[in-house]
Design a protein that fits this description.
This is Winged helix-turn-helix transcriptional regulator. With about 230 residues, the chain is α+β, with helices and mostly antiparallel strands. It is built from eleven helices and seven strands.
């Protein structure tokens, strides 16, 4: 743990949280990730050994409890929610924009979507299989298997009949998920093409709960648009 040598609550906080990846681990814990493998899948750029080291550090600092193979934020860890999502709000306004090529990881995006897919709009079907094909990038094929109680992500064919097909530009689906692009606009411009039974096609946008930071992004874009549209007083 780096020490700054200044008697200040900000520096004490940075000594606990300022190491690379630490706040992203806290972010994912606050969003419901509990198991080591869940955290590892959501942070593929982080080695498993460093993830273990960071979790041990958070546990020693009293921010995370570890029991029965699960990690949970302590009350002190939960209190970081306003900090983490405060950064989301600030970043949406001042540090966010179109996705860069090095940020477009299809596996990460599909893992996020898996965690934010609500099966309820699909009705009482026993299973709905969504096949996602990306038009560019490395890994291009994924399957989401949604049952009323669970959603699984597969990178190989799970062997079920496909109910819905989503053919997508990777950057467009990232922007839709993150709140920078409206789902309907992406479909109209054929950046996303959904095919399947009409009821399931209509249910898909309702089942996508989108990123937990999407509303901050939309607010920032609305504020920017309003600012541009407001005439400057002379």
């Amino acid at each position: 743990m780096a020490r700054y040598g200044q008697y200040c609550p900000i520096t004490r906080s940075l000594e606990l949280l300022g190491d690379r990846w630490t706040l992203l681990i806290v972010r994912d814990l606050l969003l419901g990730a509990e198991r080591f493998n869940e955290l590892a899948r959501g942070l593929p750029g982080l080695s498993r050994s460093l993830l273990s080291k960071r979790l041990d550090h958070l546990e020693r600092a009293g921010l995370v409890d570890h029991a029965d193979g699960r990690y949970h934020p302590t009350p002190a860890g939960e209190d970081l929610r306003s900090v983490v999502f405060g950064l989301a709000e600030w970043g949406s306004r001042w540090a966010f924009g179109e996705p860069r090529a090095d940020e477009l990881d299809a596996t990460v995006l599909m893992w996020w979507i898996r965690g934010g897919l609500d099966p309820a709009p699909f009705g009482d079907r026993e299973r709905v299989v969504l096949y996602v094909h990306f038009r560019q990038g490395g890994r291009r094929r994924f399957w989401l298997v949604a049952t009323p109680s669970d959603v699984s992500l597969c990178s190989t064919d799970p062997g079920y009949d496909v109910d819905l097909v989503l053919d997508a530009d990777l950057d467009a689906l990232y922007e839709v998920w993150g709140g920078r692009m409206e789902y309907g606009c992406a479909v109209r411009d054929r950046r996303l093409v959904v095919s399947g039974p009409t009821d399931l096609v209509r249910a898909l946008p309702q089942s996508l709960r989108f990123s937990p930071i999407a509303h901050y992004v939309r607010q920032a874009m609305t504020r920017e648009a309003t600012t541009r549209a407001t005439p400057v007083a002379r």
